[in-house]
Amino acid sequence: VHLQTQQQGKLTIGQMVVKIYRGDGIRGFYNGISASLLRQLTYSTTRFGMYETIKKQFPGDSTTIPFYQKALIAGVSGACGGWVGTPGDMVNVRMQNDMKLAPEKRRNYKHAIDGVIRVYREEGITKLFNGATMATARAILMTIGQLSFYDQIKQIAIASGYMKDNLTTHFFSSFLAVCILPYFFMNSVGSWLLIRQLSSRIEKF
């Protein structure tokens, strides 16, 4: 987040590490960790849970579902996960950007739940979903590039006869799914756009 939201874009990762350490010490590296956990608990559990649940509603098993249907299920699941995870994303960016503000302008959220409650009380519920459109779009693309490709690769690997439905095949399928160019593109570009949107005009956001 710090590298992606720096205004001039001149600091390397090493320089950013030194800057954070000098400004906030070791604790500075963990600013926003509770919000990151909240975001994962809401975003990831929703999209993974929905994907598997919806997939089971189709007749047969996952090997009989065509790829376009898997992609559609992944897109719907990602959309729901992205929307649900937006408050965690927003609070996470705020907590990590606090160090860039003057001391009197910092929000100083104690943790993610405190941040969510304060935003709700001070700015209204709609502010919690600031950036929801971008977060949802990113989640749709990333979930399609991750879950549907994983299922399809696993299906092809098992059908080839060279691999069985075991841990090795699952790891192999996961590895290939995240190495696919669309996944990297969707995740990296989507994350960059979302963070830039959430952190634009940091003091006002």
Word description of this protein:
The structure is a single chain. With 205 residues, the chain is mainly α. It has two domains: 33-162, Mitochondrial carrier fold; 166-204. Helices cover 71% and strands 0% of the residues. It has nine helices and no strands. The longest helix is centred in the middle third of the chain and has 31 residues, at 67-97. The relative contact order is 0.13. The chain crosses the membrane at residues 128-150, 170-195.
Which helices and strands occur, and which strands form pairs?
Blueprint: H1 2-5, H2 13-24, H3 33-55, H4 67-97, H5 112-123, H6 125-128, H7 132-159, H8 167-179, H9 181-199
Helix pairs in contact: 3-4, 4-7, 7-8, 7-9
Shape type: elongated
Beta-strand portion reads under 5%
CATH class type of the largest domain: Mainly Alpha
* SSE string, helices as H and strands as E: HHHHHHHHH
Annotated CATH topology of the largest domain: Mitochondrial carrier fold
| Number of separate strands | 0
Number of domains: 2
Q: Percent of residues in helical segments?
A: over 70%
Membrane topology: Multi-pass membrane protein
InterPro entries: MCP_dom_sf, MCP_transmembrane, Mito_Metabolite_Transporter
Transmembrane segments: 128-150, 170-195
Pfam family, one: Mito_carr
